[in-house]
Amino acid sequence: MAARSYGQYCGVTTAIELIGERWALLIVRDLLVGPRRYSDLKQGLARIPTNILSTRLKELQAGGVVRRAPMRGRGLVYELTEYGRALEPIVLALGRWGFQAMGDPGEGDLVTPDSLTMALRTAFQPDAARDLDIELHVGEVALRVTVRAGTLGVVQLAPAAPPIGGRLPEADPEAVLVAEPGIRHLIGGRVTPGEALAQGLVHVTRGDVRILDTFADAFRIDPLPA
Amino acid sequence: MAARSYGQYCGVTTAIELIGERWALLIVRDLLVGPRRYSDLKQGLARIPTNILSTRLKELQAGGVVRRAPMRGRGLVYELTEYGRALEPIVLALGRWGFQAMGDPGEGDLVTPDSLTMALRTAFQPDAARDLDIELHVGEVALRVTVRAGTLGVVQLAPAAPPIGGRLPEADPEAVLVAEPGIRHLIGGRVTPGEALAQGLVHVTRGDVRILDTFADAFRIDPLPA
DNA sequence: CCGGATCCGAATCGATACTG
DNA sequence: CAGTATCGATTCGGATCCGG
Fold first, then answer.
1. Can you list the domains of chain A with their CATH numbers?
2. What is the pLDDT of residues A115-131, one digit of tens each?
3. pLDDT at A171
4. Sequence-ordered list of residues with C-beta below 8 angstroms from that of A121, at least 6 positions apart, any chain
């Protein structure tokens, strides 16, 4: 038995031995958005030591979670295997669960394009969402967020948009939203769209402010709904 | 910012900082079965160092996941808070995901009453399950497993049954099943009940062998159904 | 026996530098 | 761009010890 094994024969234990090491699930989170190069991952996980990223990618490959693939043109990307993609509902559920415990950001805490993309997926309510096409800014990150027929689309605009991630809509967005960290109180249903505006948690810098109602219906994490 | 923080403002990151440390989620797994004393946890997680158990319990309390409570009579138990119990669907989903990657047990790998109880919950199919009342043995572990009206009940018989866990049915079980690790191929749908019997993956030491059909319908983990 | 605390060697992680 | 090498700082694991 490996020295660092948990020594149990159990599905949960097996899962944790595959994706429980430090940073591993954040790598999976970013790869759920799309294939990424080594340097994309390194940038998206700003504080990961490069040797740890290297080690984790090897472990995730050995575990059948991640695969190396040649990128069209040249270079190579890491992408999730089918088995790795099966983690999506788990990562989304963990994001919802963790959302409940989020306070204000610590100094130095970053929001990255991939983490914000996954946060939107985490909160997305396919049944309640009406059509929507906005530009969303959080700190330096800018995303084009669309909802069409209950399907969420996210395209990363800045910074350093990777070539992968879908195609931009032709038309201009309906509105441009600039969100502060306090936006989580709107997602969490603890303030109304009107209150969020009044408290400066979010600004609508272009378009009709009533877009916030549509936004709040589409993205929602209610307290403890399993 | 804490030195060991991931430095990101994101729900997944927050979740991992709460329950991502080594052993933490296995403590949660065992507490999902019921409140446990310090020594129960130490026995159920045989290879955990006592200082790590102590440290994790403090961290989980600080994170609002676990709470200390006085035990009826005297002594004390650890139990999940409401927030901690909200991890149940996540732990079950992780167990299903990890199940797909389970091979044969390494030497020294243990099956504990709590891990087997959670494994049964992981695989339980409420919609397909017909009524059932059996005794299930895996190694040293013995459980009384009942299904009544689509609801799963598990009572731990051995070894060292804790006082918590529900009440034994009055009558004798319909059958006694003795399972080997290969039982996972039955749960995984890779062999039929008849094949499982023929290959010695499971033995019916009392009662009608046809109980295995009922068992196989009630406990099932299909490959990659998200 | 219960519920830990303490100590110490081994392994891992984090930060930085360096290379094909 | 995609990592490897190195090394000090932390954490983990195993054992022992202690107060009730």
1. 11-86 (1.10.10.10), 108-218 (3.30.1050.10)
2. 999 999 999 999 999 99
3. 82
4. A92, A152, A154
